[in-house]
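Hi X.,

You mentioned you wanted examples for the new student's onboarding notes, showing what a folding record looks like when two proteins sit in one file. Here is a clean example. The first protein comes first, with its sequence line followed by its structure tokens.
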Amino acid sequence: MRSATFAFISIVALFPISAQISQSHPEDCGRPGGANPPLPNVSATFDREGQAVLYIGGVGSRHAIPLTRSGLVSAVYRIDEVCPLPDGRLVLFDDSAGSEVLIVDPAKDSVDTFYCYWPILSPDRRWIVYEKRYPLHGVEGSAEYLIYDLNKSAAQNRPEGDVNNTTDVGAVIFPPGQKNVGGDNIRVPREQLHSGLSPLYWASDSRAVLFADAIAGRPAKIILVTLDDKGAPSAVEHEITVADLCGAAISLPTLPIWQMERAEVGAGEGGARSIVLDLTSDNVHCPSRILQLSNSDFKPTKPETHIKAEPTHGAIVNGQEVVPPPKKK
């Protein structure tokens, strides 16, 4: 998933200490090669009430923007990256627990925020792709991949238009058939239980996202999702084979356990898209390989609709043990 050496803002809840934000991971801003985007004079702190505040500008001309919503104690503990947008807005990433994304509009003093996993901005800075958040304890969560369209408003990026919803945010790009409704990524049948196995990689033209994903008990696959101008997704998949890992279809008792260390996805010129993967495996005969794929190596994915599994004896809902009714004969 997303690896980072976090740049942190020095913050003290009772006695605010303002500190400049450093740009430690510009690659998370979607810049090819990790080129540092221009960063305005930005700093942040907690005020005496424990509320997170963002400051833009230097001493004597600072513009203060509260990052806390609805008067609640701030959940923003640090800011790991600041990504400027062409229209003057800022996208802030907080990776202290999962991820919190904050979209700050200094001209309107407005802040939209949501929680997710592994967010990354597209190279053209129009979309943010990420995994939908789910509790890390007590339930088994399924990976659901979403995009936030920065050309749309906060309400337009919520299926129900509720800007106070900080979890069900964005449009589903994978698995196909999902609609991003509350709780649709927990307690799903095992045959639809997805796990994200790699970071999310944008294509250089910002019109495709690539990642590794697996359904419980099944071989992992490379997923490629292309987007049209409105963000409508089209997903295809490629199942990694022994030949992919070893360069030839050698005889092995089982498919080696593999990881995708890196991926590069070219622009879709004339409908063709070049894809280069850096793969490693646990097999001594095939420890690593650079694999090149094209569109013809993928096949369409099948749509699915999550049906929540029935609770089993011992499940806890609202503090009470759930005992399922007897099956009808």
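Then the second protein repeats the pattern, sequence line and then tokens:
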Amino acid sequence: MRRTNYLEVTSDLDDCLANLTFSCSAELSIGDLLGKWCGTTTNYTFTHSELIVTPLQGQSLKYGRHLAIFKIEGRSDRIAVHWSDKPDDFTTFEFSTDKKQLIQMEQQEGDKGARRVFHRC
């Protein structure tokens, strides 16, 4: 290696290390969702095939108590639960760093749901 290429090599190495760190981050999966999550107005129970919604204040549910899970897409920072094969029919969730809180992101499309925070229960 010649000295004149040091900055170029260092830059390439930094890029390589940044990509390596990113690619090693574990993707979220349905295993992170499984179980019961308690919220302020509803509780969620995720199984491998469905979401069971339990209202806490007697409100009616727009889509019923049982929602079939069509597909799960996980990334390192969030997970999308697809309810059908329609491209806009999904809900995005994030987790706290300790994975004890589940944050349902506000939806601008579809049923336009509010941001909701759940905790393991």
